[in-house]
Amino acid sequence: MMIAMALLFAGWSLLAGSQPKQFGRIVRHGHLSKSTGIAMRWAGAVLLLASLAILVQSEGPSFGALVWACLLSISAMAVALILAWLPRITPAT
Amino acid sequence: MNWLHTWSGVVLGSLLFAIFWMGTLSVFDKEIDRWMMPASRLALPAEFSYETMRPAYQAALAAKSPSVLLLVPNERNPVITALWRGTDGAFAQHMFDPTTGAELPDQGTLGGSRFIYPFHYSLNLKVLGLGYWIVGLCGMMMMVLCVSGVVIHRKIFADFFTFRPERKMRRATLDLHNVAGVLGLPFHVVISVSGLVILFSLYFPSSIWAVYRQDVRLFGREAYGSYVRPPARRPADLVSFDTIVAKAKSVWGQGEPNYLYVFHPGDAAAYVQANRSSEDVVSNISHMAYVDGATGELLSASKPEKPAAVTQRFIAGLHFIQFKHWTLRWLYFVLGLAGCVLIATGLLFWVESRRERHRKLGRSGARVVEAVTVASVTGVLIATLAFMVTNRALPLGASAFGVERGAIEVVGFHLVWLLTLLHAWSSGGRAWIGQCWTISALAVAAVLLNAVTTGDHLIRAIVHRQLWPVAGIDATLLIAAVVAACAALRLARSRRVAAVSLQEAGA
After folding, report:
1. Mind telling me which residue stretches traverse the membrane in this protein (chain A) (predicted)?
2. Model pLDDT, residue A93
3. Is residue B111 part of a domain?
4. Judgement on whether residues B275 and B370 belong to the same structural domain of the protein
5. B385, B424: one domain
């Protein structure tokens, strides 16, 4: 469960980071090249699906899918909230 | 589409918030029951004998009730709960000790499962079943809002993670509305659709009527395998409950029953409906077995359900969360809160984007909606907390003006809710700050009162397993108190900043 949560969180973070607007928030003055963006997007999607596989294996098909669907929403919200307050926490470089 | 989203949201948003809020609390309705009914904070016996339910059955027999529903104690509800019709014809709920079978003192409260939970699906409006229809309409509108919201959201992927709390109130509110809406969309859609599907027989009576005409019972028999027989009008004793359960289990194989429903108690034609608990599957499926009360023979058992019924029970199960899965229970709670945030920010955005314009034009629209929004968002939270505080402040058996304890709590809830509306109207824009502080104070008061009146303070509650529900509620209340205080401070600060900049502009 914890592993799946971590994977989901990492997956959404990668997907968020693949957007040029959000990338600029995470890495100051960073420039996101097109190929890196696509790679991050794929990696993020793979992580999201991997967490589904883990949950289905540990919780069974119906509970696993349900837990995954719920966690998918919650972890995405967590990423959005962290991104919102991140620039204030990390010192500007 | 924009127009549709805006106006259906403003008109029904307040009701939707109340329904979502009560639904979110209903996720933990049994835990709220434990909190509000201190006598029921009991440990389950290691070995439960179904014969422990005998005294509850005898009490119903003495009251000459035509039937009695006995709920088997479980982890979340560790008491034997019995429902029967009293001599005055009204249904009454009684609780019995799961170890000794002795009746527990009446707690004089409707608690979570008889006030908060019915509020979620019927608003407790019983006249003409109006509550169900209003909730049904809100469910339909929620789906309309979800669809139209997606359509009018122009940059759904570009703004997927965008939340800018540092921006102006209006922009930040819209961001939060989008984040809560888009990222929680699967939950919002599934929960509204499943809510409607549960009550399909009420909202689409023609679907049953078209096939079964007037014979609703035949529908029950065919769809869910129910069994009925008339009383024999000869007295007879009921066989042991353990025998009945053993017989029912011979049909299911594994699994314990979650309730035993005795029809015609004390009669030779008494029969018991035993229902297998569905806590290990998502689907709210019912496996019923009917056992003869006098002989202990099997009368009937539900056949495997047909695809339509299986689908309906699965969708209902998604909504009811009667399964045993604590992680999912908390996830539903969090997603329910996200739904509340979605609705509240939607209403707030409407007010924020019109306040100045309406003030200049001398229109009262924004002011009215703001007062209603405050009362329906922070107001319902305050009313719920007042309901809990009243519960702990009133002594057992209290009554005032001929109103019993349980009803006083309900009156208190509605009275406080009305007061929050008056306060919101009279204090205008400052109402949010005042009501946030009230939430914070009431939440702390509820935790303190619980500790004083029952002795189950947070530390004690964490140590004892049977008090975990109490610990969970106390901890959640304390977190709510902190969050509400932070919100109040933040609002007060931004108000000061706005006032200073206004003065500077004036000077």
Report:
1. 36-56, 63-86
2. 42
3. no
4. no
5. yes
Q: Which residues of B touch A (CB under 8 A)?
A: 158, 160-166, 179-180, 183-187, 281-283, 318, 323, 325, 327-328, 331-332, 334-335, 338
Q: What is the distance in angstroms between the CA of the first residue and the CA of the last residue of chain A?
A: 36
ipTM of the complex: 0.86
DSSP state letter for B234 = S
HEC profile of B148-189: HHHHHCCCCCCCCCCCCCCCCHHHHHHHHHHHHHHHCHHHHH
Residue B505 lies in a domain: no
Q: How many domains does chain B have?
A: 2
Number of other CB atoms surrounding residue B50 within 10 Å = 20
Which pLDDT score, from 0 to 100, does residue B165 have? 76
Q: Convert the pLDDT of each residue in B106-125 to its tens digit.
A: 888 888 898 999 999 999 88
Nearest CA in chain B to A2: B327
B162 vs A21: CB contact, 8 Å cut-off? Answer: yes
How many angstroms from the chain centroid is the CA of residue B271?
32
Please check whether residue B84 is in contact with residue B63, taking contact to mean a CB–CB distance below 8 angstroms.
yes
Question: Which residue spans within B379-504 are E strands per DSSP?
Answer: 399-400, 403-404
CA-nearest of B289, B280, B278 to B313 is B278
- Point out the least confidently predicted range of B1-10, B120-129, B167-176, B205-214: B205-214
If one counts every other C-beta atom within 10 angstroms of the C-beta of residue B465, the result is 10
Beta strand B91-96 pairing with B288-292: unpaired
In a domain? residue B212: no
Residues in contact with B457: Cβ distance below 8 Å, sequence separation at least 6, in sequence order: B450, B451, B474
By CB atoms closer than 10 A (0-12, 13-18, 19+), residue B214 is exposed
Q: Do B9 and B143 form a contact (C-beta atoms < 8 A)?
A: no
Write the residue in B161, B185, B328 that is nearest to A67 by C-beta.
B328
Residue of A nearest to B185 (CA): A73
B348 in the same domain as B473: yes
- Rounded average pLDDT over B8-17: 91
At B275 the three-state DSSP class reads strand
Q: How many residue contacts between A and B have a Cβ separation below 8 Å? A: 70
**Three-state secondary structure readout of B478-496:** HHHHHHHHHHHHHHHHHHH
Q: Is B331 a member of any domain?
A: yes
Of the candidates A70, A80, A88, the beta carbon closest to that of B187 is on A70
What is the residue range of B241's domain? 41-106+226-302
Q: Taking residues B349-355, what's their average pLDDT?
A: 86
DSSP B230-241: ---SSB-PPPPH
Nearest CB to B282; choose among A66, A70, A71:
A66
Which pTM was predicted?
A: 0.90
Note whether B250 and B339 are same-domain residues. no
Share of chain B above pLDDT 70, in %: 96
Beta bridge partners of B96: B80, B103
Q: Regarding predicted confidence, which is higher, B436 or A6?
A: B436
